[in-house]
Amino acid sequence: MSDTSLDLFEGMDLDILFALFDTLPVDVSFVNADDEVTYFNLPAAGRIFPRTRLDIGRRVQRCHPPQSVDKVQRILDDFRAKKRSTADFWLEAGGKFIYIRYFAVCGKDGTYQGTLEVSQDCTEIRALQGEKKLEGEPGV
């Protein structure tokens, strides 16, 4: 194992962990307890809400449009106060149906560690009908 191996995941190093996050069909961002963006993935399909390296260390309030900053702050305040642990939103933009979820991230002792933001383009999912079972896949 390399210097970046994680004790929790036998045989998994940070390169694999980052590749795993970049393979997910969602945008993932993490904001620490000081409201600073400390991580975002780079999905192969491209991010719904683009980010640059300049966003790392930036206060999350500066990454949102002015009209939504007060709502973002209320969510963060509620997470810190343990009033709620999730917040969900959806919107239509550029012909896409976007689902945005915020999750409070807490340590084992319950201390607020930050917020995980997960955004997904659900346009194709929303249009699904009927069933497609695994049995119909070649070789299964």
Give the topology.
Elements: H1 14-23, E1 27-32, E2 37-40, H2 69-80, E3 86-93, E4 96-106, E5 112-121, H3 123-127
Antiparallel strand pairs: 1-2, 1-5, 3-4, 4-5
Organism: Candidatus Cryosericum terrychapinii
Protein name: DUF438 domain-containing protein
Q: What would your notes on this structure say?
A:
- The chain has one domain: 2-Layer Sandwich (Beta-Lactamase).
- A hairpin with a 2-residue loop joins β3 and β4.
- The mean pLDDT is 89.
- Helix content is 19%, strand content 28%.
- The longest helix is centred in the middle third of the chain and has 12 residues.
- It is of the alpha+beta class.
- It has a 5-stranded antiparallel β-sheet.
Please name the defining characteristics of this protein.
3 helices, Beta-Lactamase, alpha+beta, 5-stranded antiparallel sheet, about 140 residues
Q: Give the count of helical stretches.
A: 3
Large-scale geometry: globular
Low-confidence stretches: none
- Which sheet architecture does the biggest sheet show? 5 strands, antiparallel
Widest β-sheet, arrangement of strands? 2-1-5-4-3
Predict the CATH topology: Beta-Lactamase
Query: In percent, how much strand structure appears in the residues?
Result: 25-35%
What average pLDDT do the residues reach? 89
CATH architecture: 2-Layer Sandwich
Distance between the termini: 34 Å
CATH class, anyone? Alpha Beta
* Count of extended strands: 5
- Could you tell me the radius of gyration in angstroms? 18 Å
The string of secondary-structure elements, in order, is HEEHEEEH
- Please estimate the helix content: 10-25%
**Count of the separate structural domains:** 1
Oligomer: single chain
